[in-house]
Design a protein that fits this description.
It is a single chain. This protein is of the alpha+beta class. The chain is about 20% helix and about 25% strand. The chain contains eight helices and 19 strands. It has helices at about 15-35, 95-100, 105-110, 145-150, 155-160, 180-185, 190-195, 200-205, and strands at about 5, 10, 80, 85-90, 125-130, 130-135, 175, 250-255, 255-260, 260-265, 265-270, 275-280, 285-290, 295-305, 305-315, 325, 330-335, 345-350, 355. Strands 8, 11, 12, 13, 14, 15, 16, 17, 18 and 19 form a ten-stranded antiparallel beta sheet that branches. Strand 1 and strand 2 (about 10) form a beta hairpin. The longest helix is centred in the first third of the chain and has 21 residues, at about 15-35.
Amino acid sequence: MMPRRAGIIFPSRSTSAMKRAMAGTLRFAPLLLLAGCIPGNRPDPAPPPRASAPPPPPAPAPVAPPPPAWQARKVVPNAVEIRRSTYVVVAGDSLRRISDKTGAASEAIARENRLAPPFLIRIGQKLRIPGGRYHRVGSGESGVAIARAYGVEWTRVAEINDLAEPYILREGQRLLLPSRAEVSRMTVEERAAAFRLDIDDLITGGEPALASNGQAAPAVATPASPMPSTVPVAEPGVFAGRFDWPLTGRIIHRFGNLGGGRRNDGINIGAPRGTPILAAADGVVAYVGSEVAAFGGLILIRHGDGWITAYGHAEELLVTRGQAVKRGDMIARAGMGGSVIEPQLHFEIRQGRKPVNPLELLPKRS
């Protein structure tokens, strides 16, 4: 029978045993207290977060260069077919007004009726209106872009329209195009040739059309401020009359036939890569670019009186379209652009469209 004391039940255990248990507990208490003070294998506290640097500003988007002048304006092929007819001149007529009435080109009407400048006509005169397919030139359109819109060679368009210097079209002018029958007879090679660009194309059809009441822009552009690609460049009035060598080096290829059906319209001068190329005479830059695959970096300069120089295979072009240059100004650096395997300069001198042997016009070398 277990004794009861104040409602608490004590187990039947001897007093001496209870004392031994309590003594053991008291003996280990200091060790337990010390254990709470011994550092454990815990990770170091994380350092306070640093203030993050602001992200760098986004890089400006690259500015695409303006399209070359010859393709600055897209051409819509909306030519009109005109039947051959006769027109009787009435009061107030001019060739331009008759062109607007009939849809035929005023130049074609003049050729058909053998009218010479100043193209005088009289009331009651009967004029033959030549039939054909005519494209009306839009604002800023170039001859090359017009020809490509119809899949024909620009040289063919220039030929049938009897175009001459300075080869700048006018807004509202009508161009006679090859007939549909002629186009349908074109070979695969002829169709491919219609989309190949060469120096002759740039000279005769590379400028944008002149506004009906506007003028070509004078040479005031700089590399930092290029001329708008939709504005034609004015040619210098008079040639200074002298050409200098654009650089010094050995002549790799001379002017004329190279054999195998190939022809060189200029001379090729070998030079170390990066050699400065100089303007051969005073003039205005008419073209800067690399659209003519054979020549890579190419510059054309007009000098007045129809004289033009060309500089090909350049690796660095240092002038801009519309810029005035003086003889001896550095315009580019020689390189291996286009279809060559060693650094050089392809140099041409042309009188209008006709290539001239540069060696006949450059100073004689000693």
